[in-house]
Amino acid sequence: MACADCIGQNSGGTAYIFVMRARLLLPGLFSLAGALLPLRADPADVESSHDYPGFPRLPGFVISDFDEDNPAEYDFPVARPLPIDSDHVETVDVKGHRFVIRYEPGAGVQAPALLQTQQYYEKLAAAAGFTVEKTGAVGDVSETFHQARAGHDVWVHLEPSGTIEVLTIVESSAAAPPPVTAPASVPGDEDPLYTALNKDGRVVLPLTFLPGKADLDADSQPMIDRVVAILAAHPDLLLRIEGHTDNTGDPQDNVRLSVQRAVTVRGMLIAAHVDKKRIEAVGQGGAQPLADDNTAEGREKNRRIELVVPKDSAGFHASAPNGMNYYPGASGSSQ
User: Fold this and answer.
1) What is the Cα–Cα distance from 95 to 75, expressed in whole angstroms?
2) pTM of the entire structure?
3) Among residues 138, 172, 206, which one ends one of the domains?
4) By CB neighbour count within 10 A (0-12 exposed, 13-18 middle, 19+ buried), where does 100 fall?
5) Cis peptide, bond prior to residue 289, ω within 30 of zero
6) CA-to-CA separations, 251 to 81, 82, 287, 289, in angstroms, rounded
7) What is the chain's mean pLDDT, rounded?
8) pLDDT tens figures, 182-234
9) Is residue 204 included in any domain, yes or no?
């Protein structure tokens, strides 16, 4: 046979794809010189199930469960490591046509090692033109792949366990909108938020979170939209999103909550197609109060999100004389 990938028909009329390269890519995964991967449902598959195009099952695996929902949604994990929490993983909520496919080894089939499974699906994703949004690691071996297509996006999440592999795929309801651009006739510095940011190097972003949680109140979306417009109007602007709390409760819990809230804001900006390289998220806990934590009014002011122009940006401002932040009247950092 001269070709590397050939389509043929067996006597029963079932179509197969003959994959010669896979044996070279993943030595030990295939016991034959080539492997036959069914394009149509295996007789042992659950009724009305099928592989998702571009992601054929591991050799010898069968579909033990298959769900298809539209409309539906799924939170796809994406790797966004933070200096304060290197294991943190954000999620991207995708709505649209969802497929959930569960695979198990067929009778007498030995499942490959997790690493081999990951490599197998990584090769499939690369061949199909997907990018890797999250790679498997010790403690969290799941992987996320993404592809932008004409009319919609496709997201794929692999959850391998050694004996059971689950693929969750969502075809987004619509194509991702183009990045927000500010009208040429409206200078970005007309927004008072940008004016304050440009003047002081940082500004408090008036956002409302649910008490003790990292979930934003629905009324906060217009403020997020303003930040997106500012970043679109000033393509060289870099921003650090800082989360702050008051000093009540456990300091470590406060830092964790402040990180989560900053990450939430960053995630919303990324979802609006702001380049992720332009924005970082950090949490300060209650270490940088603006007001007296001994009063309810002071604690409310201290629970905040700030936009900060970092040193990497052309708009960076030197620190205020107190050496802590840009607010001349701010109290010193608690230790």
Assistant:
1) 9
2) 0.45
3) 172
4) middle
5) no
6) 21, 18, 9, 13
7) 76
8) 443 344 456 888 888 888 888 999 887 877 788 877 778 888 888 998 998 88
9) yes
